[in-house]
Description:
Layout: H1 2-15, H2 19-28, H3 42-49, H4 51-75, H5 79-94, H6 107-117, H7 119-122, H8 124-136, H9 139-159, H10 165-181, H11 183-191
Helix pairs in contact: 1-4, 1-5, 2-3, 2-4, 3-4, 4-5, 4-6, 5-6, 5-10, 6-10, 8-9, 9-10
Amino acid sequence: MTEYAANVALGYLLGSVPFGLIVGYLFVGRDIRATGSGKTGTTNVLRTAGRAAAAIVMACDIAKGVIPGLVGRYLLDDDGVAAAGAAAAIVGHVWPLFAGFRGGRGVATAFGGILGLSPLLALVFPVIGLALVVPTRYVSLMSVVGTPISALVVIVASLAGLQPAAFGLYAAFAVLMVEYTHIPNIRRLLAGTEPRIGRGGDRPATG
């Protein structure tokens, strides 16, 4: 239990580092949560601070999930500990201790978790994401549709005994988190008011 507690704490604290907020201040000198989606993730950084800032934030947010996954697998040698730490990183990203519990939607960090837990399976996810976002230019559609599809790959592999059961549980948890945080996006997609890539960064934050 000590190892679980330690890696969960590590994951949550790493997840709580608000890279989007920090990079936003460095690039545009303001809190990016005041405009666009009101979040600290890559998409809102792209809308408000540009491509370079978004690339930095994406890499950092992915690393949040990778690190506790690797620590659990290789330092603590426990797949369950690894999955728990990666899950905690998503929670930290969404509700960050260091940013007033107002963070991002968790997609990049969730992907980072799989990258740390099962790198080979993670290679499939960008392909699924690109297949959804390129023709539609809706990042949110990629998230709400691509995440369950990607998670299903992990869950099926776990049920088949090709991956630890803990990794399948992590994937299911990641889906629940991503879908929950995207409820406003789902409503806008259904209403036809969701902004496409690069648009909406100058509007007041809508959530």
